[in-house]
Amino acid sequence: MAVMLYYPLVKPPTEILHQALLYWDGIATIVPRSPEVYDVAVPEQLKELRDRDLYFPLAFDEGALAAGEGERSGAWSGCTLFSESPAAQVLRQELRRMAASSDRPRLPSPPDAFLYQGKVSGWLGQELLSLGLAERWEEDYWCLALPKEAQLLVIGTLARDLATRIEFSPYTDHTQAHTRALRGPIENRVPSWEVEIGRLLPAPGTPASAVLAFRDRHADERQRLMRALHRLLGDLRRDYEHPSDVLAQLRREIEQSVQDYRGAAKSSRMAWVTRSVTVTIALAAAAGSVVEPGLTWVLGAVGGYALNVATREIRPLTSFRDDHDFSYLHRIERTLT
Asked: Is the pTM of this model over 0.85?
């Protein structure tokens, strides 16, 4: 299944939810472990989508190592981020760097960012408190108040680590969370592609019921376009030395699937807009000899869109599904021309 793991919030914005329903097999978010807090934090719309196997609530379980079906209000039991794991070591290092910085983020009054301790492993809450990057919120003992920068770093790193363990794809509309999730020590980075693609979405104000009806009515067109785009990203990761050849081989398939999808959209009589989505694709370390960071160019035009590509260096995943390392950044209010 191609499932997006949205972060940093439990409830995704409407535009992200539409993206998941039209271009993915489902959407997941990280939720608190407590059944009582879960019932309050997760809106009814997501619970209804869960009943249709389109929404997957994930929770970090203190006693679990692998993800599996859980019993907490229909939530999945997630993975503990053990304090000695590579992701935890990077997170601890980045938090300590943030705390020691001369311009360390300060907790505003009143606080504008929170973290339920039930969403993270116990050691992490203690680490935030000991570094002075979080305080217990007076209105809820089990909720930590912390600067927005610290919250986005924690949730971004957790989401990327959890997503790759269970073969989901981390997806956000917060640029800072996306950047911090990919950051790592300079000496331990790998090259990556940043591919910008366009996505046709229902205009703001379109009800979810209309989007679901379109999804069901045009399942074939949706599946063909999903397969073509996911194949493009996978082939770019494997054949990083010849990106133009990858596009040439898939051009006809992509253009035909885009044309069919646009035809279905036009027949729906809904209003549509185009949004930009940036996909960061981690490459093998060996790609460093041929992929120079800091470059930007137009790979080519396909389906009526220019396919923009850039290169950068990111933190690698050293365990689990390191061959499934894709991270998505949704550009709300930005179109791709």
From this structure: no
